[in-house]
Please model this.
Amino acid sequence: MVTVLQIFFVLVLIIILILFVFKTRRQNETIPLPENYRELLTDYVKFYRQLNEEGKLLFDKRVEQFLAAVQITGVNAIVEDLDRLLIAAGAIIPVYSIPDWQYINLHEVLLYPGAFNMDFDQEGSDRPVAGMVGTGPLQHVMIITKWQLRQGFINSNDARNTAIHEFVHLVDKMDGTMDGVPEIILERKYTAQWRNMMDATIGQMKSYGSDIDMYGATNPAEFFAVISEYFFEQPDLLNANHPGLYEMLGRIYKTER
Ligand SMILES: [Zn+2]
Model:
């Protein structure tokens, strides 16, 4: 006679089997990097070009890990190998010196061809057509346009890079608030100083203008993203023009030696 207990055990067994099959399948889904990824990264990513061989290997590894964890979906746009690599590069550059960093707050990146009309919540949008970090129902989603993504890397000396900008927002958001203070990586003893520094610089920008992109004067969260683009694209120029900001960003991103 088949007892309730036996039926229960069979059911549990079936569930375990299903979970096992799914898990194996997901692990196998990892897409390997394209054959010419080194060439593409070298051609398009200045940060990568400037790394030594050891640094490049480390960068490759992290690109691979990022692409295994985050889905990249084209919305009326074809996702090419170059796009996937540039999105990953934008993710890795800000946290390159923080080895155990993972974007646990990101599941998917949507790639749009060019300007996109947002019929969803406008909150969190950036320079309207460039990109955005999702909120509400789009939590854990980032939107970026193919055009801006590529321009950000092609023009590597203009202190602007939309991918880096959006990923910095995610770094900032990891502590629960997108306020320009990435408390998860900035030592507590510096947070007040950093907040004051941001407020003072935004005040100066509004009064006198600045070599810093004026979009950064919108609020501290945008300031942090904009000044980080400057920091990673033109570190020497930022150091010359704003040594205090440069020093603090070195502390935040652990790039100081
Ligand atoms: Zn922004």
Observations:
- The mean pLDDT is 88.
- The radius of gyration is 21 Å.
